[in-house]
Amino acid sequence: MKTAIILWAGLIIFSEPVSAQHQGKHQSDSTSTNKEKKKQDEDSLWIPKVTHHSVTIHGQTIRYTAQAGYMPMKNSEGKILARMFYIAYTKDGVQDKHNRPITYAFNGGPGSASVWLHMGAVGPKRVVLDEKGVSPAPPYHLQDNANSWLDQTDLVFIDPIPTGYSRVEKGQDPGQFRGYGNDIRSVGDFIRLYTTRNDRWNSPKFILGESYGTTRAAGLSGYLQQNYNMYLNGIILVSSVLDFQTISFDTGNDLPYIFFLPTYATSAWYYKKLSPELQAKTVEEVAETVKQFAEGAYAHALFEGNAISAQERAEIINRLHAYTSLPKEYLQRANMRIPARQFFKLLLRDSAKVIGRYDSRFSGDVIDPLSDQMVYDPSDANISGSFVGAFNDYVRNELQFKTDENYDAMANVWPWDYSRNQYLNVAPTLHEAMTKNRYLRTWVVCGYYDLATPFAAAQYVVDHMGLSPAQRQRIHLTYYKAGHMVYISQNTIAQLHEDAVHFYAQVLQ
């Protein structure tokens, strides 16, 4: 019995190290397997999802390949700082892709993903809207975009960090991607990387930006030239803002009051608030009539300041009332200056409605009747749910890109440095780029009902870029009976496509 006990104890003593040895080996194997799996997951993150489709554009059937994925954004030491999400569409069957144009597209905000241009204007799929551009009740659906630009160019939609699915890596400071300069660098570096990895250096290259995306596009025209010697063929600016002094309602800055006035008038005309004489005019005629007044007698009156005579002041107020329908008593108290944030509520004050900032043709019920400013933008509310909802279904089911990340159509990017406490003005950058690159052409798209980036401001900036007559001929402006998103109605998206066909042909002739 004693012997047995000793033997049993010995077994315990000698078997424990053996068991621990096997356990350590098992843990080591498990750790190694986990590391390998983690590396495989990390590697697969950078492999885009590839799918194949077709679309018919004005009678022409185009087969194309879609790529949805991430581009790793690295520092000079090769460390990954962030991942930038993109969706690219390339036409199939192209024998020499170096002859095929490629267009890099993005929206603005800053803080906006590219879903608006992508799913509303130029991508192969489009959110279903009615003829005017009104969204239906949910759930939302997509249709083939018969006005997609794929008949003219390959398309790459970029979501700047941290919009869409783009994200900074864990432990990285989001601030390194915020602000004008940081944003230009990261998007510019993406364009260089995509161009290099997909062998598109010899393809004609275009940039398409909307809203703040036009600021980015103009900045990129200089950044890509100066840093990578990448010369562009064309830049397309939809609802542009190149000089922020023209849209910033700040004390002592009279320019916005001048350039917003023509759009106040076209908005009042749309709601039949003007005199019979003015209502009998077309929207184009109203826009031009009020623009001449705004940049002439009205601008002179504002620049006079307190030195203006009582008679001239009364005459200006009478004209402002005629062109906006706002009460003369309000115009007196406002010192002849109408802030946009108040105009949104004042125009339809009698019916307790607020008009849209992005598109003044859209109106909605007032939330706070006591406030003199808008609480929400009806034109934004019209499309936000439909575009984002349809995109989330599309990217997972048709493009096969599946993630649990939220698609941030409008991300929080504040604080945003607009360049050292001064009005950001990228018009000189575009001027310099067009001077160095004598083949670069620019197309500026304007909406008559855009109260975010008014058409008169866009024209003013172009006219004050200091371009030579030959350079000025390389900038073309087109005007649409639309708002900020000129493409949401059936008529204007067809016109936009027609104008795009003309622009690409002109650039590439």
Word description of this protein:
- This protein is an alpha/beta fold and 509 residues long.
- The protein has 3 domains: 41 residues; 300 residues, Rossmann fold (3-Layer(aba) Sandwich); 128 residues, no CATH class.
- The chain is 43% helix and 17% strand.
- It is built from 15 helices and 14 strands.
- The strands form 3 sheets. Strands 1, 2, 3, 4, 7, 8, 9, 10, 13 and 14 form a 10-stranded mixed beta sheet that branches. A two-stranded antiparallel ribbon has the order 5-6.
- A hairpin with a 5-residue loop joins strand 2 and strand 3.
- The radius of gyration is 28 Å and the shape is globular.
Write the layout of secondary structure elements.
Elements: H1 2-45, E1 49-57, E2 60-74, E3 80-91, E4 102-106, H2 115-122, E5 125-127, E6 142-144, E7 154-159, E8 167-168, H3 180-197, E9 205-211, H4 212-228, E10 234-240, H5 255-270, H6 276-279, H7 283-304, H8 310-324, H9 328-333, H10 340-346, E11 353-355, E12 363-365, H11 378-397, H12 427-436, E13 441-447, H13 455-463, H14 469-472, E14 475-480, H15 490-508
Parallel strand pairs: 4-7, 4-9, 9-10, 10-13, 13-14
Antiparallel strand pairs: 1-2, 2-3, 3-7, 3-8, 5-6, 11-12
